[in-house]
Fold this sequence. Notes:
This protein is of the alpha/beta class.
Amino acid sequence: MNWFKSRHNYPEFYKVYREAFKQKHDDLKTVRFVVFDTETTGLNPKSDRILSIGTVAVKAFQIHISDSLECYLKQEQFNKETVEIHGLLKEGTLTKIEESDAIIKFLNHIKNSVLIAHHIAFDVAMINEALKRMDLPKLKNKVIDTGQLYKKTKYLKDEKYYSLDELCETFNIKMQDRHTASGDAFLTAVLFLKLSALLRQKKKRLKLKDFLNWI
Length: 215
């Protein structure tokens, strides 16, 4: 689909999304964080596709379960090897929507919030590739990677990959609904709160920039 013929002729939902960024937010007490996760057919953002998106919001360092999103996407591609991980079959009882509809729902939900995910570069890349297929620009949101945030709390500069499983075990977070998008988003939200508490102990006057990553 071709949403625009000229540089500024965006569809209405994208205009609303873009307009949200005129409002700046730096006060940690008022920032809306959206923790999200994607389940996918594989690990290549260029060739693989999103199967599901799950989110949960955090505000004033509290999880807001009512402020969440969960959607399942129709599978044009099928990888039986990944079904054992996420459990999503090509056919089934779940209501599934088109990729473009899921992306619209996602943008409407996140607005200008700060996005959080565990190893967020992958999830952002998957969303950006979906946006590209819709002839739309990349995500504009600021981002936080809980894997990198953990390193900040420990002053680690190593290249080690700290998995969500490993950090949940380290912080005694019960791993319910692991490898579902919504389940992993919630686990990551709990991890974010624990890491935030550690960071606030180390630095009294924290600002949003102390949490952010650049990808």
